[in-house]
TrEMBL record:
Designated name of the protein: FxsA family protein
Bilayer-crossing regions: 12-33, 39-59, 88-113
Biased composition (Low complexity): 164-173
Biased composition (Gly residues): 140-149
PANTHER family associated with the record: UPF0716 PROTEIN FXSA (PTHR35335)
Sequence segments annotated as region (Disordered): 137-185
Keywords from the named record: Membrane, Transmembrane, Transmembrane helix
Organism domain of life: Bacteria
């Protein structure tokens, strides 16, 4: 008898990434063509190069600032949550700004600039908290939201039975290694 696992649901994040990798290049191509038709091909290429150079300079400056704040938080012994988020946002924004295209440049600029980064940080924090809460709630950990709800506890395996002693008992056997001869010599 073959036991095949049930088909897994597609995770929303995976679907979102697939859409992003398919849709964003098409949008970038459309915007590049439109800008090229308005200002010409060479000026469009020049603007792309200028945005990449400006993005590199801005990322280096803001990255240095984020690294300094992160190091300071670690030296003072406090949890560097804000600093880690800022460093991640600057890195992501920098990658987006180096990628060719005007749409990714705008999004990258919003992630890198110190004026707009707090908004992105709040969004990132909210996403991380929701994601972590969903993971904990689905794990059946007592004391957390969702623990004990129907569907959050994984029962016995299909076709199997729960081992005696309750849900926290793992069936197995103790195997002792045979004693090794001592080398006295």
């Amino acid at each position: 008898m073959s036991t095949t696992p049930p088909p897994r649901r597609r995770r929303p994040l995976t679907a979102l990434l697939a859409v992003v990798f398919l849709v964003v290049p098409l949008i970038e191509l459309y915007v590049l063509i439109q800008v090229g038709q308005v200002i010409g091909g060479w000026p469009t290429i020049g603007l792309l190069l200028l945005s990449a150079v400006l993005g590199g300079w801005l990322v280096r400056r803001e990255g240095r600032r984020a690294w300094t704040e992160l190091s300071g938080a670690l030296r003072s012994g406090r949890m560097p949550a804000r600093e880690l988020a800022d460093a991640g946002l600057v890195l992501t924004g920098g990658l987006l700004m180096v990628a060719p295209g005007f749409v990714t440049d705008v999004v990258g600029l919003l992630l890198v600039l110190p004026v707009t980064r707090p908004v992105a940080r709040r969004a990132l924090t909210g996403f991380a908290v929701r994601r972590a809460s969903a993971q904990v709630a689905g794990s059946g950990v007592p004391g957390f939201p969702g623990a004990g709800r129907p569907g959050t506890h994984h029962g016995p395996p299909p076709g199997g039975r729960r081992p005696a002693g309750g849900p926290d008992v793992v069936p197995g056997e103790v195997v002792d290694d045979p004693p090794r001869p001592r080398d006295d010599g």
